[in-house]
Amino acid sequence: MTPAKQRPISISSSDRAVLDSQKQRFEQRTGERTNWGSFLATVALLGLAAAGVYYFVRATRRSPQAVDVQCSQCHGTFQMAVHQGSDRAIYTTCSGCGAELVVYLETQH
Ligand SMILES: [Zn+2]
Predict the structure, then answer these.
(1) Cα of 45 to ligand 1 centre, how many Å?
(2) What is the rounded distance in angstroms from the CA atom of residue 100 to the CA atom of residue 92?
């Protein structure tokens, strides 16, 4: 039997440019510097290598089961239910304008 091996995700230079611009947008909107490792892990987790159509937004924890999300397109806020132990990024659409959003959940300690 062959042992399972980790497979690196190949990112072409055009993918890389898209990801770079997404990362910059994310940092501008959240006012935070994202480290490439966790950003790429999040993106890879969601299979968003070609993430051009998605908008990254940050959620504010309202309760253990719900977060407030502010849409980066229409700036409307809406509540989203999350399960305990959810992945730290969730794909959703804005209830106001229908934009496709990737909600980045802060890890709670
Ligand atoms: Zn919206």
Answers:
(1) 23
(2) 6
